[in-house]
Structure prediction request, 167 residues.
Amino acid sequence: MFDLSLSRCRIRLFYFTSGLFAMFFMSMESFVIPQSANHDFATWEKTPCKLMVVEPYAWGNPQDFLFIPHVVYSYSMDGQSYTGKLFSWSDSQKPLSKQKILALLAPYKVGEMANCYVNPAEPGRAYLLRPHAEGTFPLWVGALGILIMMMLLGLLLQELLRKPLPM
Prediction:
């Protein structure tokens, strides 16, 4: 049996809306903000780098059989040597199966030269995969999230301002 009193419905709606707000901000932090923080990808310089380690790295619980790419490479810029460990621009690399990670790492061999992309403003920051700055998909995801939050906020306000039905 459910308690459908007005105060219980309002409390449930409040918790539901709060949960959606939390999910929205978590998705913004993991998807939209990293993309916008690296918006200057077009200015990053293509630099030769030497691959020292290229292997799949077990991620999480070993029984899950999930992996992320583990790479270590060295490069020079402005006469100074650097060591990089980042494969792609996303700090939250999605774990994949070992076969998919091996396919992703197939073009890269230990000891060979490859191209890495270095931020000239921060030479210690480089990636093996070129970040893609084209498109506005992250902005649309953020705009959609804001629109959904505004709709839910409107529903919450409508519920709070609603007068109880006469008995």
In short: The mean pLDDT is 75. The beta strands are 45-59, 66-77, 80-84, 113-119, 122-127. The two ends are 21 Å apart (CA to CA). DSSP finds three helices and five strands in the chain.
